[in-house]
């Protein structure tokens, strides 16, 4: 959870429900991987000493994605793949690419014309071997060599002009129809870009000596990851399917197309996978949240840098994001959100709660209380079919806002919410220093080992067996091979 400037949420309570029940502010949406970077913005006149555009973009990306993650072995491994991809590309004379690993568990990758290529440590955890990593990077480089970012920006400008003209010369209904057509045109154009980059990436990967089926395997893992998140956080599967307005094809479509591209090159079994080399390179890479930005262990959330912790009610699954901590209790249609703002300019917490940032507040429910030595106020609000128990807790320079959403605020449910609010506390400097994150550990399977026995060694917030199978690309009933190396998550 990162610090955010003060905002006034006219419909904050509705937002709690919308975000929590749509996958806990999921950042790793299906089909979002392999994103075309935003089109370059026109440069403003600047002093002669101003940094060049590539340097500015690099710093902006680091700031947006948690900074650079230092993993020398993984960087060397990926850079060596890039050398092979460059030699096999259609433009071997282009500037050499160099990888930067981003410190975020979100699965993503992108390349810039400057020669900077970015992969997240979340992607490194999901990829299963060198050919999968090569496929991702070849795909991103293809976006650059095919000029997709510039072409997409041109298409969007054209669509905007047509929509604007349609709104002037046609009726409102006809104008909206034309705008819908143009949005669809841009979406189709972008989906085709993804498929074109997939095809070009598979070809270059194969020419570089890697297994051309690596792209299909990685895309399959991406789809499985989305399905697991949907199962965990209550996001309905139909909401994750193909959207005709989406700028990316659905993952199943991309998998089938990637397999077809690979089959044009040869039958399965050709090319190098280098699973052992890849696993050795990522052994020890951090997994999940950066602990200094807050982390989840079971129902407990701890933020060492801000020095606080709280425990969610029984049955809640928590997820940390850059904006807030979200939680769901799927079976009972309950959700929560925790965020923080700098001390608002009000004389009291009661005045802040009643200042208008909460819709449906019941004024008679506003009450002062003390939470482990911290001043706090709690209240109840109603919006539509949802009821809310909320609390604001003052600690140092910040006010922490904890909101629970439930369809029916029974005495039993309210008691659980109050107990969770009362669990909020400051942690000691010693507790903050003891914070440590999770990491990828690579181990060998012994005779008799099974997915159950190895996943039992995993430290994950939930469902270790499912995560073990996902991280290792194992089918439902696939057995382990003695002596084979596998990824697990440990502290």
UniProtKB/TrEMBL annotation:
Q: Which GO terms describe its cellular component?
A: membrane
Protein origin, superkingdom: Bacteria
Give the organism, scientific name. Answer: Methylocystis echinoides
Alphabetically sorted, this entry's keywords are: Hydrolase, Metal-binding, Metalloprotease, Protease, Zinc
Mention one GO biological process in which this protein takes part, according to its record. proteolysis involved in protein catabolic process
Q: Bias regions of kind Pro residues — which residues?
A: 36-45
- Write down the Pfam families for this protein, in alphabetical order: Peptidase_M48 (PF01435)
Query: Does the keyword Cytoplasm feature in the UniProt annotation?
Result: no
Peptidase M48 domain residues are 73-257
Record's PROSITE patterns? PROKAR_LIPOPROTEIN (PS51257)
Q: Would you tell me the protein name for this molecule? A: Metalloprotease
Q: Name one GO molecular function term.
A: metalloendopeptidase activity
Q: Which CDD domains does the annotation name? A: M48C_Oma1-like
Which cofactor(s) are needed, names only?
Zn(2+)
State the residue spans of region: Disordered: 32-54
């Amino acid at each position: 959870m990162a610090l955010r400037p003060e905002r006034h949420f006219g419909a904050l309570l509705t937002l709690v429900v919308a975000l929590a029940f749509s996958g806990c502010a999921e950042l790793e949406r299906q089909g979002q991987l392999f994103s075309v970077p935003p089109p370059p913005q026109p440069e403003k006149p600047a002093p002669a000493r101003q940094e060049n555009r590539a340097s500015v973009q690099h710093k902006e990306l680091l700031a947006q994605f948690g900074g650079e993650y230092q993993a020398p072995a993984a960087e060397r491994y990926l850079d060596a793949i890039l050398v092979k991809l460059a030699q096999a590309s259609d433009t071997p004379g282009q500037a050499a690419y160099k990888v930067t690993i981003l410190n975020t568990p979100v699965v993503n990758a992108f390349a810039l014309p400057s020669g900077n290529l970015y992969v997240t440590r979340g992607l490194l955890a999901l990829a299963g071997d060198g050919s999968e990593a090569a496929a991702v990077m070849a795909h991103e480089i293809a976006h650059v060599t095919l000029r997709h970012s510039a072409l997409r920006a041109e298409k969007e400008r054209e669509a905007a002009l047509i929509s604007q003209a349609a709104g002037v010369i046609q009726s409102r209904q006809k104008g909206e129809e034309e705008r819908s057509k143009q949005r669809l045109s841009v979406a189709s154009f972008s989906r085709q870009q993804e498929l074109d980059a997939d095809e070009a990436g598979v070809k270059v990967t194969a020419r570089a000596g890697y297994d051309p089926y690596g792209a299909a395997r990685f895309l399959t893992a991406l789809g499985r990851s989305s399905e697991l998140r949907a199962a965990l956080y209550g996001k309905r599967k139909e909401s994750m399917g193909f959207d005709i307005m989406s700028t990316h094809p659905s993952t199943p479509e991309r998998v089938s197309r990637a397999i077809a591209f690979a089959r044009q090159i040869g039958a399965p079994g050709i090319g190098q996978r280098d699973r052992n080399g890849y696993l050795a390179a990522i052994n020890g890479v951090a997994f999940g949240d950066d602990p200094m930005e807050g982390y989840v262990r079971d129902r407990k959330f701890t933020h060492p840098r801000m020095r606080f912790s709280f425990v969610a009610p029984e049955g809640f699954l928590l997820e940390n994001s850059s904006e807030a901590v979200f939680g769901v209790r799927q079976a009972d249609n309950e959700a929560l959100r925790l965020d923080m703002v700098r001390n608002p300019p009000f004389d009291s917490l009661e005045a802040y709660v009643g200042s208008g940032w909460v819709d449906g507040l019941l004024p008679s429910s506003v009450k002062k209380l003390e939470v482990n030595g911290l001043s706090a106020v709690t209240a109840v609000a109603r919006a539509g079919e949802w009821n809310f128990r909320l609390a604001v807790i003052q600690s140092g320079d910040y006010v922490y806002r904890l909101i629970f959403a439930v369809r029916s605020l029974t005495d039993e449910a309210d008691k659980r919410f109050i107990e969770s609010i009362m669990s909020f506390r400051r942690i000691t400097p010693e507790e903050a220093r003891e914070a440590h994150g999770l990491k990828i550990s690579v181990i060998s399977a012994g005779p008799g080992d099974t997915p159950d026995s190895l996943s039992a060694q995993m430290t994950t917030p939930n469902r270790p067996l499912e995560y073990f199978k996902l991280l290792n690309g194992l089918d439902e009933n696939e057995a382990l091979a003695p002596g084979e190396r596998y990824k697990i998550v440990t502290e």
